[in-house]
Write a structure and sequence with these properties.
- The chain has helices at residues 2-14, 34-50, 79-93, 141-153, 156-162, and strands at residues 56-61, 66-71, 120-125, 128-136.
- It has a single domain, classed as 2-Layer Sandwich (Beta-Lactamase).
- The chain is of the alpha+beta class.
- A hairpin with a 2-residue loop joins strand 3 and strand 4.
């Protein structure tokens, strides 16, 4: 018993402590669940369907890695890589891809994993960037973005409450 008390006191004495002003050495990172990613993707598909559009949707985490990918039955195969690039770009820039269109003719626009056209939105809640959603398949990127927003709208209240 005495040995364990001595060991505990020795550990306390030799353990470095952070001053109140020092930054923490680790950062907690918020992540959306797979189920949330699926809900976003399905709601985006449903919003496009209501407009008679078959689309592909990708939801990525904050690192741009796909968490959910859906392609409507009649959506062309190309909608998947395009939606993934839009989601990746939105997550990496924490911005709607429609706001990045003016950079399309720059070096950034030549990066193969980027898509600097409308249809990608960041997933944000509680002041945290959580990922991105990209939609492809509509006749215009603006319509893709409306569908992406519908996907976000399906979960944003729950995300905000969970933060």
């Amino acid at each position: 018993m005495k040995a364990s008390i001595v060991a505990a006191l020795a550990a306390l004495i030799t353990t470095p402590t952070l001053a109140e002003d020092d930054a923490p050495m680790i950062t907690p990172i918020q992540r959306i669940t797979m189920e949330t990613a699926q809900t976003i993707a399905k709601a985006a598909i449903d919003a496009c369907r209501k407009q008679g559009i078959s689309a592909g949707v990708t939801v990525v985490d904050r690192n741009g890695i796909a968490q959910a990918v859906l392609r409507d039955t009649l959506a062309p195969p190309v909608t998947l890589p395009v939606s993934q690039k839009k989601a990746y770009t939105a997550a990496n820039f924490n911005a709607a891809t429609s706001t990045l269109e003016n950079r399309a003719q720059t070096a950034l626009g030549n990066m193969p994993q980027m898509m600097l056209g409308a249809g990608g939105l960041p997933i944000q809640a509680g002041g945290s960037m959580l990922g991105g959603v990209g939609v492809s398949g509509a006749p215009s990127g603006e319509t893709d973005e409306v569908c992406a927003q519908a996907g976000l709208d399906a979960v944003v209240d729950d995300l905000e409450m969970g933060m």
